[in-house]
Automatic annotation (TrEMBL):
One Pfam family named in its UniProt record: Amidohydro_1
Residue stretches making up the Amidohydrolase-related domain: 85-447
Protein's recorded name: Probable imidazolonepropionase
EC main group: hydrolase
NCBIfam families (UniProt xref): hutI (TIGR01224)
Amino acid sequence: MYRLLVKNLKQVVQIVDDNTTEFLRGEQQMNNIKILNSSSSTLAILVDSDGKFSFIGEFKDLQKHLEAESVDLGSIETMDSNGGIAIPGFVDGHSHPVFAGDRVHEFAMKLAGATYMEVQQAGGGIMFTTNKTREASEEELRRDFEEVAKKMLQSGTTTLEAKSGYGLNVDAELKMLRVLSTVTPSIPLEISATFCGAHAVPKGSTESEQTRMICEELIPKIEEEQRNGHLKNVENIDVFCEKGVFEVESRYKDYKDYKLQKNFFCSKKILERGQKAGMAVNFHAEELKYIGGVEMGAKIGARAMSHLEEISEEGIRGMSQSGSVAVLLPSTAFILRLTPPPARKLIENGVIVALGSDFNPNAYCLAMPMIMHFACVTMKLSMPEALTAATLNSAHSIGRGKTHGAIAKGRNADFLILSANSWEHIIYRIAAHQDVIQHVVKNGNIVKF
Ligand SMILES: N=CN[C@@H](CCC(=O)O)C(=O)O
Ligand SMILES: [Zn+2]
């Protein structure tokens, strides 16, 4: 009947205490998260046999409740947290975790002053990783990804948005999506996979040709593989909507002859084709140059848009009205020395703000505690805002706002037990989260490392 009991907690950071609130927005809501405190460490959490939170509160109240049900406490697996602190497991709202090789050599180029696009134009960047990823076997990619997934879990991430996008052709994109779809059960990182076949235009192809291939070959193949059960979790569609990569919208209603259509702007086409296949729109917008991607995304009902370093005033208004989640990626702005997105303005204008690691060979950081620290320092979020963005709001960005991202009755029991004076230490201590995180619990099961 019950899977796990955690006792002797001094603090439980719930974020919200219900399973109906899907996100928090605005300064007032994001800074008033629900926290239970007990100076004598008498708080407890009980998880039911479906892996959902069943009780959160004072242990003595739980005892009464269980006695009334005639449940023998001794029969439940019990963890003595010894004055620990419970917080929700992190939901990483944006990552590119399946790839072969690394790009450490490009880090040196960037330190010497090269921009992201200059590295790309010199044959590096996404195409470099694509070539390595195409060469790698599915088994090699899976093995590497599982190592990353374990490290993510160790760093407190229990749910992950994870993109394809280093294949860029039918075989290699499907290979990546299969890796994301079939992680071994001993690595309980929950994945919301995103098809990102429009991550770059490969050499020898064009934006229009790639758009045709994605809409007419790749997405139908994914639909077929989902139907026959070979792919399970392709939930989102992504495009690198950026000047010189995939631009905003097509001038043409009909795009039969792609090759002749020189100014064929493709992001919208691809995103709408993904929507038709049942995927939620969740894409890269306004990272390096403003091109109006956010305005387009808000119009087509994008569930989330990431980066937003160059978002316009109109884009902010659009997101606030559409309810699209702004997934901010502080490590990328940091490593590329970009001006960070206007996080405060987004919050003040009622845009729902979430956080993602953007783990990829350009920005090699998978630890959400570090991402929250960056968000606080470089984007001026408060610590409660950063935690909300990395839990409930990022859960909402992948359609899990009612089930994940908070410690509340009926939600998935994904949580961390911290050892520290207060929960804020998970953000405050730089690159020391391993000392703070004592246990990671996914669906009520303690993760074994
Ligand atoms: N900007 C596009 N995509 C990734 C980078 C991928 C790469 O450089 O390999 C991002 O979100 O930062
Ligand atoms: Zn990205």
